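User: Sequence recovery, please. Input:
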């Protein structure tokens, strides 16, 4: 296994629901499981399960075969063995060499997610990166017209997927532009069209700007189940983008190249929520 394959596999697993699916399939062994059994075992809707299975299949972690009218999904045991061996060979010497060396604070990459109201999308992105960044990243979020309120549905969706949500709060962008700013930023990512034209020159640290346009779940009208499905879709989109971000060799990229990479991530993993009304996330 090479490093690109390992990063792809690990990025696909860096999400609570996908790890639950994969654990279930590992336990099922070579017999595998039909989609209905997986959805029941993981508490997922059919559409959400389909999305996660496709991500795991794209990374080579899951295979499927037809049995009558059903598709049976199985964990790719050969790839799992190769990934474990790769991690053992690659990480064990690195851990040994660095076990007495703490990571200096200046090596942490500060990322600010900016939305319109800092109540939905940007809050979710902050939580996801702080979880998936595993200490290499420090994520913040703010709103250009912050509402002071955080969407309860966004918090419920985060908790259900295994992401931290208890400390979430809506914050004004001015917290990061004042002389005593909360952090010196390396990267600023706008997630709403309202914030897409943000002048990052006013932010300390001359951060690199990326724009990840993401549909606004607060503007969607429907039943509670339908709205929850939209939030699920937005969270999945953010997880995919952030997983790609965390896999980049950021310290070796010059600002121009990094900006191109951020733009490519924004184009690659857009969500597919249809014609949402504009909101204040």
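Assistant: Recovered sequence (281 residues):
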């Amino acid at each position: 296994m090479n490093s690109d394959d390992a990063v792809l596999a690990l990025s696909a697993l860096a999400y609570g629901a996908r790890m639950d699916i994969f654990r279930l399939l590992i336990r099922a062994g070579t017999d595998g499981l039909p989609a209905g059994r997986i959805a029941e075992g993981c508490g997922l809707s059919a559409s959400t399960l389909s999305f996660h299975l496709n991500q795991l299949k794209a990374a080579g972690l899951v295979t499927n075969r037809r049995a009558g009218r059903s598709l049976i999904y199985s964990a790719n045991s050969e790839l799992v063995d190769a990934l474990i061996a790769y991690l053992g060979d690659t990480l064990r010497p690195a851990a040994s060499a660095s076990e007495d060396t703490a990571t200096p604070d200046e090596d942490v990459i500060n990322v600010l997610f900016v939305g319109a109201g800092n109540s939905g999308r940007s809050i979710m992105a902050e939580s996801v990166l702080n979880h998936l960044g595993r200490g290499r990243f420090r994520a913040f979020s703010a709103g250009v017209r912050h509402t002071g309120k955080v969407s309860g549905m966004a918090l419920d969706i985060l908790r259900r997927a295994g992401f931290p949500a208890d400390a979430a709060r809506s914050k004004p962008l001015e917290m990061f532009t004042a002389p005593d700013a909360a952090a010196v930023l390396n990267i600023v990512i706008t997630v709403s069209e309202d914030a897409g034209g943000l002048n990052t020159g006013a932010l300390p640290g001359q951060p690199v700007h990326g724009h990840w346009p993401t549909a606004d779940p607060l503007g969607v009208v429907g039943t509670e189940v339908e709205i929850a499905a939209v939030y699920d879709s937005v969270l999945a989109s953010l997880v995919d983008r952030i997983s790609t971000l965390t896999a980049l060799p950021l310290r070796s990229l010059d600002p121009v190249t990094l900006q191109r990479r951020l733009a490519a991530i924004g184009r690659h993993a857009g969500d597919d929520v249809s014609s949402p009304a504009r909101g204040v996330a």
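Residues 92-105, 270-280 have pLDDT under 50 and may be disordered.
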